[in-house]
Amino acid sequence: MGFKATLKGAVFAGMMVAFGAGAAAAQACEETQFSSKTGEIYLKAEQAAMTEKNFAGAAQAMSQLKSMELNCYEEGAVLKLSAYINIERGDRQAAVRDLLTALEKGYIPQKDAAGTYYNIAQIYLQDENVDKALEYMKKWQQAGGKPDRQQKWQLAVLYQRVDDFKTAIKWAEEVKSDDGSKNYKQEVYDLLIYLYNQVDDKAKLASILEEVLVRNPTERKYWDAIAGNYYAANEERKAFEVQKAMYLAGLLTKEDEIMRVVNFYNRFNAPYHAAQILEKEMNAGRVSKNLDHLELLANLYQVAREHEKAIPVIRQAADAGGGGAMYERLGRSYADLQEWEETENALQKALQMGGLKDRGTAWVMIGQSRYERGDRSGAREAFGNAGNRAGRSWIQFMNSEEATASALVCFEVQAAYLNVENEAKICKRLAVLGEDNVPENCKTVPERLKAAQEKFEATPECKAQAT
């Protein structure tokens, strides 16, 4: 945040430079009054300056007086009135010379010296002569001057202008303390923000920025300053919280600002919130709906496992020029949702459009989609087209799966045959008991045994095992 304090606004209001008649005589001067001739001319000059505001006429009278032989009392009074007239006429350097001469010759009592130094400082302030103004402000303090609130503000500004930031901070903090919490002055806070930034006092800078934000919650520059302070301190999480608050307050409306918030959400593990903001701002037209942003939005939804939300975005990205690679992503998203027909359609289009880094993987996913839909021959064809380890693994798995199924069929037929065969053996042993004592089921054993044997011999799976 930049800051340039102005001296014009710091000049002491209503500077008292009325050095007219009645000014105290120096201790070394024993004269106490004007002579009649010089007194008449002096009164004429004083009336022209003080009453008539005829400074040109007053200056002529002063020139006449200065050409005369004056006693010490008269010379002191003339110098002081001359300084006042020169200030009013805009000849500030002449006014300074008058006042310095009066000081050097002792025409200004010691008790009034501090005030004179202060007046000289104000004259230099009006001329924007920073170094001289500061020099005489120091002399004023050395002579016993006690700064009030306005004079402390002048000192803060002057020290800031000569790049003595630590001393400027001292005076600015005193001004803030004098003002108190109820008498808030924005220029004081702005100066302190600038000074704390210059001396890299991050703790005080953060504290005063928070004070300012309480009073100016919609003032963008203070939010930016706080975020910048956190960035400089490598406290990205805090910077993110500030950026988030700015966004929620409606202060961020430009595309790059909104994208910064989106990226922050993503970086701090909140992809779903990042996606929501990005989609909302694209729909509102504040963020362009280009391929990069659509692809980012799709990524965010996919990372957040919101595949149903990702799919329409991926479609838009594909239509916006994403090519085969984007349709491949669309196929993956459908696969995550186990929508197998849509999976194959998207991947077939991806293969047709080209631009895929790995066509084999796309064929594997097509094979899987066919497998899940019960198209085993189609799945084998797709896995074969893949021509990679994954495709071969799938074919081996299907072979093993089919061999297991075949063995299970044969096992069931063979088990049924063996059960009837065992039953026949038992019935044969029971035949010695007499026909009337043989169980009813034994009467049908020969027919059932024959049927089971024929079924076993006719089952293809059992034949394959036999060979």
UniProtKB/TrEMBL annotation:
Keywords of the record: Signal
Highest taxon, organism lineage: Bacteria
Matches recorded under InterPro entries: TPR-like_helical_dom_sf, TPR_rpt
Endpoints of the signal sequence: 1-23
Gene source species: Hyphomonas beringensis
Any single Pfam family the record assigns to this protein: TPR_8
Name of the protein in its database record: Tetratrico peptide repeat group 5 domain-containing protein
